[in-house]
Amino acid sequence: MGIRVAVAGASGYAGGELLRLIAGHPELDLVAATAHTQAGTPVSVVHPQLTGLDLTLGATDAATLGDADLVFLALPHGQSAALAAQLPGGVKIVDLGADFRLRDAALWERYYGGAHAGTWTYGLPELPGQRAAIAASDRVANTGCYAATITLALAPLIAAGVADPADIVVVASSGTSGAGRSAKVNLLGSEVMGDLSTYKTGAHQHVPEIKQATGADSLSMTPVLAPMPRGILATVTARPIGRTHPREVLQAAYADEPFVHVLPEGQWPHTAATVGSNSCHLQATVDVDSGRIIVVSALDNLGKGAAAQAVQCANIMLGIPETAGLSVFGVAP
Amino acid sequence: MGIRVAVAGASGYAGGELLRLIAGHPELDLVAATAHTQAGTPVSVVHPQLTGLDLTLGATDAATLGDADLVFLALPHGQSAALAAQLPGGVKIVDLGADFRLRDAALWERYYGGAHAGTWTYGLPELPGQRAAIAASDRVANTGCYAATITLALAPLIAAGVADPADIVVVASSGTSGAGRSAKVNLLGSEVMGDLSTYKTGAHQHVPEIKQATGADSLSMTPVLAPMPRGILATVTARPIGRTHPREVLQAAYADEPFVHVLPEGQWPHTAATVGSNSCHLQATVDVDSGRIIVVSALDNLGKGAAAQAVQCANIMLGIPETAGLSVFGVAP
Amino acid sequence: MGIRVAVAGASGYAGGELLRLIAGHPELDLVAATAHTQAGTPVSVVHPQLTGLDLTLGATDAATLGDADLVFLALPHGQSAALAAQLPGGVKIVDLGADFRLRDAALWERYYGGAHAGTWTYGLPELPGQRAAIAASDRVANTGCYAATITLALAPLIAAGVADPADIVVVASSGTSGAGRSAKVNLLGSEVMGDLSTYKTGAHQHVPEIKQATGADSLSMTPVLAPMPRGILATVTARPIGRTHPREVLQAAYADEPFVHVLPEGQWPHTAATVGSNSCHLQATVDVDSGRIIVVSALDNLGKGAAAQAVQCANIMLGIPETAGLSVFGVAP
Amino acid sequence: MGIRVAVAGASGYAGGELLRLIAGHPELDLVAATAHTQAGTPVSVVHPQLTGLDLTLGATDAATLGDADLVFLALPHGQSAALAAQLPGGVKIVDLGADFRLRDAALWERYYGGAHAGTWTYGLPELPGQRAAIAASDRVANTGCYAATITLALAPLIAAGVADPADIVVVASSGTSGAGRSAKVNLLGSEVMGDLSTYKTGAHQHVPEIKQATGADSLSMTPVLAPMPRGILATVTARPIGRTHPREVLQAAYADEPFVHVLPEGQWPHTAATVGSNSCHLQATVDVDSGRIIVVSALDNLGKGAAAQAVQCANIMLGIPETAGLSVFGVAP
Q1: What domains are there in chain A, each with its CATH number?
Q2: Neighboring chain B residues of C333 at a CB cutoff of 8 Å
Q3: Phi-psi map region of A118: left, alpha, beta (phi>0 left; psi -120 to 50 alpha)
Q4: Which of B220, B258, B284, B301 fits as disulfide partner to B246, beta carbons 3.0 to 4.6 Å?
């Protein structure tokens, strides 16, 4: 008899990945999966890759979810707070939305609109001290997918004083699942295959989260939509302070981490190598011409960028092995 | 202490998938992985998705492989026999190549050239009686990827007498990993993305294997190269005999199978739903205009079509649970 | 001062391709482009590839369109008849929809529903006698994209008596633009990339058109959705009659055709080679095992399968050079 | 009787695109196309998209090429100088390689190795004064594809004094055809589909060319390989000087240019919109958080980034209309 978990918002891509991970998890029992408009539909109709999972989507309400020991919320931004308030106090929650990530209410209101719901423990265990904080929490705000990719690349460099926080420039490309599962013309296969484009150029709502998590003071972050279903590749550049090589800092920061890998010299991250896993691959160099630090970071936006990261947090919160039910290895090619 | 297994030919795509599955298998220990030209290279350089697996490729010889309890051979066609002859008698073998699949030596020689190496137990557990035969064997010839896809769709219909074996027409499309990892201009991303083409049109070497496994007497099989890394979708058509609906026959044949799923009516197979899994998805209908039976079959050519299927056979041969280390669920989107 | 043409339904993919071809056509002047919900929007916003074309979408009505010498209708099936009835009698029309393709009203009603609108000259100039018929017509029904691909492969073989019309089996894969530009979850890039699936399996509405155009008596046609924006690859198989090689028949049929190419022996069609062109590439063989004729046919579903074909018909109707404004060559890779 | 042109290095992707453009050009006659190892092969075998072009590849030597009025060189870097020296003095040349782009011999030697061959007129007509210089030249060095994309975005801003040349950061993603047509495992479809990765990170050989063409003093340029055949998307960021909006500068610079388009406000460049064309699409903003200028630039690496750009230069050199044989419009979707 395992630990009872439920997923709210199970019809989207992050929700589907959560179901897959929970179904293969040795210590978690999936007791409910809910969806707004598709309640009553078998999971395998909504997610054909889960054919063989005998479960029907329920309604997203406290009655359906409240019986679990831990609930994952994979809802559209802005909907977590209301549902969380209805769940019994003893139910642990990992929220994959943005609602509880920011400490600064004014920034929340400027970038997302609406009232700030509050601040939960930030769900990135690889940040210093954060693993213990997650273990002690009943409420965890999972990172955004861009934030995870960029923070793992940048936070140790700023913390170590080798990267200037005043001038960070990032371009990060995401597969289309990062844009969600809503029917939109600009996300049709005909439009995205063979195409690259930026979006929310110059004003992405994840910038405050990334600054908060990395310690950056100024951050230009340009997101690019790439013609592939999964994966984020971030190129993070910063002006160096001193002469410590950024690779050494990253190696020291992640030497004992099971899921964050600084690649051997000469090998650069490939998003495809992380698909389906909870791994993040990193490499760093100093640019020959400009002298800027360049860190490249790759992960699966639905894996370490969303669902797998959420399971890692849940494992820590539940006191079970942190790597349980998660894969270090990607599915490639 | 698990069962000791080794992989020969570990630098290719099927080899890499074998390593991934073995690394996550609860009862198998990977003791050696070998490759011809890349001996001495760390596995994670050849397969970046296996970053975190601390193993270096060895030489493909009996000294390196002979210490294992079971060896997977993922070698180019024609190379398995020589190596198998050198391995100690007590070592079990699953061969992913074509060398030992055919019973008819003359057909082997016509389609593959060279001398016929012999015939091993055919590694498709879902065929009637085959699970027991595999369990009793030390040498198993894994199915080809097209053969697995088509046989699962067709064999029960011919066996049940509802499909005419004299006039089978198949068109089957494969992702590019089915064409292997050799550097060829026609397999460059620039050439295959956005493109569909047939190959070996009218004379594919897998036809004798498919006829042998399905009981078809006449088989037109046209393979298509599709712009995706993984997956095979086969459209199998046959003239019906009698009025039994083909779907009923397939449901009866696979009711107790963990990895072969006849989808609910109205749902048709998607290759993406099987990526990374050992599952095969099937659906069948009778064509309105022609009256022909149409069965559509989807699987992952590196999964149920190669490496995962090989692990399933190994599990049976080793007397451990048949589903150990294998996933029913695909990684999608 | 060129011939005045207009496009109704210009916001879809076929409509966009028509605009591109007309903009580059030496003898046609684009005087209006209309769209239902996007009237008032600049063309280059709806079709960014047409940036530089200074035109705003108008309303789809006779007032906007009636001033042209020739109107292309690229409307959803079922909407052409009403609009055509409102256009002045002297305006020539090429309809890219299905409304006027079928001769048999009963078949129309069974496959499409609603009342049959009538029958116009069938717009495939390469069929015997059809070029003259198109030249003499003011109303032409352009072929469907699957119908063009399959008819060019099959019609000469049936006409020559070398393929048995009683048992045609076709599997044809299309890029996603063939499914249109409506926002649907199953057409999202995240869903289609890396995926193959059949659709309308066993009952596609284009079967009656293909039978009418090819002379087939029985036709099993399974359509597959392929992960690429453009292109159709059809594998057409038939039982042979006599010993004439199908390639000879096709070569004779198309020896003088500018846009239909029987490839040199040993070369097989690639859809990518036809993208952006009005060409169809063909190759044929006799299957070693089954003895069936296999013809493979490739074209661009928006080119020879829709917009370029429509321009070819318009050129013929207008008495200008048939190849004007059309490319034989594809844009590849 | 048109102007006689020839293409050396016609078997690669840029060579194939040159042939396509020349075949459709109203004033150019293709008299020879040559290739090193594939001399003697019909063009349509090497480039199936050119089926219908009746021409056989010749040997890459002065005898085959010297009879033309203008020769395009699409050779591997380092091979143009030797061939150019053998061509008769009256033959105009456009070199698509890097050999003659740099003015600084020391930089050439550091980034490319070998001796510097010299400096030809730089083939980017949209740079101030460059159109006239090209018109007066018999020898033109076509831009590199990254250089074209980035220079069109950046040069006017530095020239106008609104972007600080001391701190330019660029991330630019290219389709796979930019990596050429050599058979390499890392360029296989199986490897690149579904994947993003950087390459030559921190030390790309095009940096000196870009600095020379843009006036940048310090340039960090990270190239990314994207899963699509064609297209480059560059995100160019710079610290602003003063308050002039970068969009205004770009609009002024390109107001009269036929092929460089500053998109309407709110519309951002898509590479797919430029495929097959000679167009470059630009948009600019000022980043909300960092205040950096962000310019996004998209073009077809084989179009405005190589072959179409070369034809534009040739048109200017030959005194024929600059837009002859070139398309403003892309082939999309």
Answers
A1: 3-142+304-318 (3.40.50.720), 146-301 (3.30.360.10)
A2: 190-191, 193-194
A3: left
A4: B284
